[in-house]
C-alpha cells in the first residue's frame, strides 16, 4: 500500500503536537520567538549554501527546514492569539497580487491579463517601487529608507540602502566616480592608520567597505555573494596548504613567513 504524502496541514498538526506542554517535546515547548531566531538565520544560510554549491537534491531538505521556521513562529503567534499560519498565507498572497497588477489586472488572484501588451521588466520595477512607497505611507513610514531592517547583514543592508537611494536619483552617474571615491576612502584610511587614530580608523574602514559595496553594485555583483566566494576560496587554499605541510612534516606556526608564503603559492596553483 502506497504511503499517503504529507501536506501542510499535517505539518501544522505536528507543530501543535510538538508544542503541547503535556505530551509534546520539552525543547520545542520552551522555545520563544527570540530563542529560535539563531536557528532561522542558520537555515537561511544553509539554503543559500546549498544553492551556491548547486546541490539541488539536498535543497528540498533545506527548504523544508526553512519552512519549519515559519510554521514555528506561526504556532507561537497562534498560541499568543496574534494570528494563524493561514493568515500568513492570506497576507502574502494578497500582497503579491496587489504588487503585480501587470499579472492580475483586476486585483484578484484568478484575473488574467491580455496576452498583448506585455509589461517590460523596467516598468515592473518602477511600478513595484511605487506600490511599496504607497505601502510605506500607509504604515506611517514616509522616509525612503524607513522599512529597511536594521539587523540585516551589513553588506546586504548597505546594498539595499544604496539601491533605494539610487532609485530616487541619488547615485554616481558613472563607474569612474565610484573608483575615484574608492581611492579617496583608501587614502583617508591610510592617513588614519599612519596617525594611529583608533576611532578614525574604524570610521574610515567602514567608509571604504561601504564604497566597496557601491562598487560591487555598479559592477552588477552581489557583494555578499562575492565575499562568501572569496572566503570559501581562501578556506580551500588554506586547507590545501595545511595538507602539504602535513605531508612534508611541517608545522604552520613554526615556519618563517617566506616558507609560509611558498606553501600558499603552491596551494593557489593547485
Short précis:
The model has no long low-confidence stretch (mean pLDDT 91). The protein is mainly alpha-helical and 270 residues long.
Strand content: under 5%
Morphology call: extended
- For CATH, the homologous superfamily of the largest domain is named as MazG-like
- Any low-confidence stretches, pLDDT <50, length ≥5? none
Mean pLDDT across all residues, rounded?
Answer: 91
Number of strands: 0
The structural domain count equals 3
- Any guess at the CATH architecture of the largest domain? Orthogonal Bundle
Instruction: Determine Rg (CA atoms, Å).
Output: 25 Å
Structural class by secondary-structure content = mainly alpha
> Could you please say which CATH topology of the largest domain applies here?
Helix Hairpins
End-to-end span in angstroms? 53 Å
Question: How many helical stretches?
Answer: 11
How would you describe what is shown here?
The protein has 270 residues and is mainly alpha-helical. It folds into 3 domains: 8-138, Orthogonal Bundle (Helix Hairpins); 154-221, Helix Hairpins (Orthogonal Bundle), CATH 1.10.287.1080; 226-269. It is 67% helix and 0% strand. It has 11 helices and no strands. The protein has helices at residues 8-18, 26-29, 37-52, 56-79, 85-99, 121-138, 154-167, 175-194, 198-218, 223-247, 257-269. The longest helix is centred in the C-terminal third of the chain and has 25 residues, at 223-247.
